[in-house]
Amino acid sequence: LTGLTQAKTLVGRRVLLTAGPTFEPIDPVRGITNLSSGKMGYALARACRDAGAEVTLISGPTALPRPAEVHFIAAGSALSMHAAVMEAVPHHDVFIAVAAVADYRVANASAEKLKKTPGQAPTLTLTENPDILASVAALPRAPFCVGFAAESHNLLAHAQAKRERKRVPLLVANLAQHAMGADDNEIVLLDDHGQHPLPRMDKTGAARAIVAHLAGMLPIR
Ligand code: CTP
Ligand code: CA
C-alpha cells in the first residue's frame, strides 16, 4: 500500500491516540520508563490522518518528529497522560491506546536530587498507575476503543485475556521482541470474530491495515 493514496475511511471521525513510553520521576534528574520508540503509535496517527480523520496524539517522550496536521499534546508521566486523555476524550469517537504506559510510579519521588551515599542504595516504593485504556473503555459514553498488547510469550492467550479484561472491541497483538524499536511489525488483530493474523510489514503498512480493519468496525453514522 505504501506510496498509494490511502482510502478515506475515517472522514468525519475524530481519533485520539496515545503513543511512546511514559517517564516516572525518581527525582528531578532520574526516572523509570518503558522501552517504546513511539514508531507504531506515530505511524497510526499518520494513517488515521491520511484516512481523513481529525487526529489528536498524546505522546510520551520519543525522538520522533511530530506528525504534520495532527493535534499534538506532550505527556511525561502516566498520571499526566491519563489527565490529558480524560480531558480530550469527550471530543473524540475513537481511542487508540498504543502508549507503553508504566504500570507503576515511584511513590516516594524526591523533589530534590538524591545524593549518592556510598554503600546505601535508596529503596524505591512503587504505587500503581491508572489504566488509561480501561478507564476510557469504562466511560458511560466511551469512544470505540482499540488496545495494544506487546507480549514476550504466549502472545495470543495473553492478548485474548487482555481484550476481555479491558473490554475493548479491537486489540492489536504483537511479540515484543519483534516490534520494539523496529521499523516493521507482525501483528494479530483480535475482535469478536476471532483472530486475524497479518503478514509481516513495515509499521506504515501495519498502521494502514489496522485503520482499514477498525474503520469497518465503526458504527455507521
Ligand atoms: N494501557 C494503558 N494504561 C496503563 C497500562 C496499559 O492505557 N496504565 C494500555 C496500553 O496502551 C495498551 C494496553 O493498555 O493499549 C495493554 O497494555 P499492557 O501493558 O500490554 O497491559 P497491562 O494491562 O498493563 O498488562 P501487563 O503489563 O501485565 O501485560
Ligand atoms: Ca503494562
TrEMBL record:
Its EC number is 4.1.1.36, 6.3.2.5. Binds 1 FMN per subunit. Residues 15-221 are annotated as: Phosphopantothenate--cysteine ligase. Pathway: Cofactor biosynthesis; coenzyme A biosynthesis; CoA from (R)-pantothenate: step 2/5; Cofactor biosynthesis; coenzyme A biosynthesis; CoA from (R)-pantothenate: step 3/5. Its cofactor is FMN; Mg(2+). It catalyses: N-[(R)-4-phosphopantothenoyl]-L-cysteine + H(+) = (R)-4'-phosphopantetheine + CO2; (R)-4'-phosphopantothenate + L-cysteine + CTP = N-[(R)-4-phosphopantothenoyl]-L-cysteine + CMP + diphosphate + H(+). Keywords: Decarboxylase, Flavoprotein, FMN, Ligase, Lyase, Magnesium, Metal-binding, Multifunctional enzyme. CTP binds at D103, K113, P130, D131, I132, L133, F148, K162, K166. GO terms for biological process: coenzyme A biosynthetic process; pantothenate catabolic process. It comes from the Bacteria. GO terms for molecular function: FMN binding; metal ion binding; phosphopantothenate--cysteine ligase activity; phosphopantothenoylcysteine decarboxylase activity. GO terms for cellular component: phosphopantothenoylcysteine decarboxylase complex. Residues 10-215 form the DNA/pantothenate metabolism flavoprotein C-terminal domain. The keyword Metal-binding applies. The keyword Lyase applies. In the C-terminal section; belongs to the PPC synthetase family. In the N-terminal section; belongs to the HFCD (homo-oligomeric flavin containing Cys decarboxylase) superfamily. Catalyzes two sequential steps in the biosynthesis of coenzyme A. In the first step cysteine is conjugated to 4'-phosphopantothenate to form 4-phosphopantothenoylcysteine. In the second step the latter compound is decarboxylated to form 4'-phosphopantotheine. Catalyzes two steps in the biosynthesis of coenzyme A. In the first step cysteine is conjugated to 4'-phosphopantothenate to form 4-phosphopantothenoylcysteine, in the latter compound is decarboxylated to form 4'-phosphopantotheine. This is Coenzyme A biosynthesis bifunctional protein CoaBC. It comes from Rivihabitans pingtungensis.
